[in-house]
Amino acid sequence: MSAHEPVTPESGDPAVPAAANMPDTRGINFFREDWLVRSLLDRLLPADTPADYRRALDDLGALVGGRLDECAAAADRYPPGLTTRDARGQRVDTIRYCGEYRELEAIGFGRLGLAAMSHRDGVLGFPGPAPHVAKYTLQYLFCQAEFGTMCPISMTDSLARILRLFGSAQIRERFLPRLTSQDMSTLWQGAMFLTEQAGGSDVGATESVAEHAGDVAPPYGISDAPLWRLYGDKWFCSNADAELALTLARPPGAPAGTRGLGLFLVPRFLPDGSLNGVVLHRLKDKLGARAMASGEITLEGALAFQVGELDRGFRHMAEMINVSRLSNAMRSAGLMRRAFVEGLVHARGRIAFGRPLAEFPMIRQTLLGMLVDTAGALAACLRTARRLDLADCGDRSARAQVRLLTPLLKAVVTERARRVTTHAMDLRGGNGYIEDWPNARLLRDSHLGSIWEGATNVVMLDVLRAIRRENAHAAFFAFVRDLLPEPGGDGNASALAAALGGAADTLAAQADELAGLGDTEAQLRLRTFVIRLHDLLASACLLEHAGENPAGDAILAIAALHAARHLGPADPLADPRWLGWLAGLADGSLTIGPDSGVLGELIATMC
């Protein structure tokens, strides 16, 4: 026996082979194993959802534990590179990608049609544009293997949305077919170039300027949108070589701040194939999402088409930012789910001191916390996606709700993903820190999720703005109360509904108070308030979903744990009676009965 072979404490014999004692998730179908997302879709999607879409979910679930994961690991290890000039010294600014990244693009843009399905008929069998719930569920699954590629996909999708809403007829006719193509040879990708050295979180400090280009023949045959030349530096441009980008610039005579910014569509190339005054200086060496190219760009007289009204550029761009924020929260929920599955599989299969790690109380406590937080994030994100569906159909109350829901989820879910991915790395120990395993990639990407479309503090301030300027909290609390069962019923669900209703009353009063406070005091209270808003929402979404669901006992237990953990006086996971429920909560098989004493005791602590 080699001196380096590990031994079990009991026998002194060689331990089980490394492959058996170092379990991984290869070969798992991540959709089939996710009982909660399947039950949520049964509730939120119509019964006649196309069979092609349902097959795509199952196929993608298998890819996450197979080829998609392999491509993600390779693309992360071999990031893109920039060539600024050709052999003759001519400016070319081309970005080189590894083959696995191109395969990721082909799956996301082509096979799944993720950038197209909200804008045209026929993607995955949908007779019209697909519901946001359907699209964001695919994003949730996709990001359990690869996070970075979803940025170009989401921005292409969001740019198409802005052009549909605010672009001229000729802009829509010329560019939407390209942006929504599933043929990689005709697809044009989209981007959003906002950040500048002076204007990052403070978009109103943008220094880029726009000048009339009336002496130039409009390219691409577009004559129904004003043509401008743009000048300025953009500091953080994700999907840096996208064929089309939306950006903000200040036209002559415009006022300072966001009110003076116009929105412009910049083609990367002119019709003859030459660069359109878009100079790419270098690529960013990022902590996460390394497969996707982010760079620094200068606009040197780039021709650009005006999109929408010139003095409403920032308001138009906000539509793109909001849907991107919801996408970012959904993607972070996917990272959380993958991290939980990694932790659970490892804990069940790894033997230490003669028994699986999953039998140790502190390991179970950690896994339960990861499961509860992941479930809450998923339920809240999908419910919000359903509100976005209704808002797009003209529901004014849903639109008011989405105004607050999107920054709320972006702020809290992305921050919580950092904690859950950290726990998963810690559970795996040394291997979790090694690049051969997915944990390091999950952890890095979770940190980028908190920064994209606004860092956490900035996005929390947007929640405060929604409360102060638009009274959006009134719509939010109406939504939460609609989720809760009717009062007066018997049993644990009614008791939890009463507790959440009380929490809603308390938070509504705090929202009214925040609206009237000065900036300093309001901001110092804001973080705790925003987190509690999210936890009220997530708990209510889970409780509503329990309903008559076949796995209702397990969902009700998760809802109660989520509510007590984040809104109650003490963390219920310190109670050892919960530890035996891990398996049943993880696979949805828990049957506790309507009068479960331990569940009732937990809920009573909140009342």
SS-derived structural category: alpha+beta
**Mean model confidence by pLDDT:** 93
Please give the share of residues in helix. 40-55%
Q: What is the β-strand count?
A: 11
CATH class bucket of the domain at 35-179:
Mainly Alpha
Instruction: Using the alpha-carbon principal axes, give the shape.
Output: globular
Q: Could you list the spans in which at least 5 consecutive residues all have pLDDT below 50?
A: 1-17
In CATH, what is the homologous superfamily of the domain at 35-179? Acyl-CoA dehydrogenase/oxidase, N-terminal domain
Order of helices and strands: HHHHEEHHHHEEEEEEEHEEHHHHHHHHHH
* Cα-to-Cα separation, first versus last residue: 61 Å
CATH topology (fold) name of the domain at 35-179: Butyryl-Coa Dehydrogenase, subunit A, domain 1
Radius of gyration over alpha carbons?
25 Å
Number of helices, counting only DSSP H or I runs of 4 residues or more: 19
**In this structure, how is the largest beta sheet organized?**
7 strands, mixed
CATH architecture of the domain at 35-179: Orthogonal Bundle
The percent range for strand residues is 5-15%
Keywords:
seven-stranded mixed sheet; Butyryl-CoA Dehydrogenase, subunit A, domain 2; Butyryl-Coa Dehydrogenase, subunit A, domain 1; 11 strands; disordered N terminus; alpha+beta; single chain; 19 helices; 607 residues; two-stranded antiparallel sheet
